[in-house]
């Protein structure tokens, strides 16, 4: 169980290949900051603030995750042996996020950051699959029985878009200028916007690709998710 105020139970989840542990700052912040330092490109399409130290990540977590009933994080743990040269961060393979769009409407948003050593492996497929089973399966089968699960990503993030489609999400469209985006990342320029409204120092923007799986197609989609997991790669 999470120690935060998250709207739903944040239970530990797993299958034969991965474990999703409720995020524990005392355990998980240090390795993720190490990965970000060594591989800053993993945040190219992610709208996180600048993360340079463990304190930076802790400030972000305490402010935006722990204090919000809308947000939670999972640490992904790989249960499969990996080559010795890739074990600098143990089996901690990335993080998954859940954002409650509206608990009354039973809508949730899912996201992922997979560490470079575990990309193009079974990790992303299984982590996403485990969360889909948890969020969309009915309570009688151990799930939350939600009506809609969303996957949103930077419109230029090809890998994320492919992952969503592979897992059965449907592309609903591109939300143009959906959010501001930190400087130094792949963002839309705002020079003209500064001239338009007279302000200075405007942040870049981002177009967002919006995907979803909904409850009344889940019975049809679920076998594909199981098949993807069972491929084990």
UniProtKB/TrEMBL annotation:
A molecular-function term among this protein's GO annotations: protein-N-terminal-alanine acetyltransferase activity
Domain N-acetyltransferase span(s) in chain numbering: 18-170
Keywords carried by this UniProt record: Transferase
Keyword ATP-binding applies: no
A Pfam family: Acetyltransf_3
InterPro entries: Acyl_CoA_acyltransferase, GNAT_dom, Ribosomal_N-acetyltransferase
Record bears the keyword Transferase: yes
Protein name (Swiss-Prot/TrEMBL): Related to GNAT family acetyltransferase
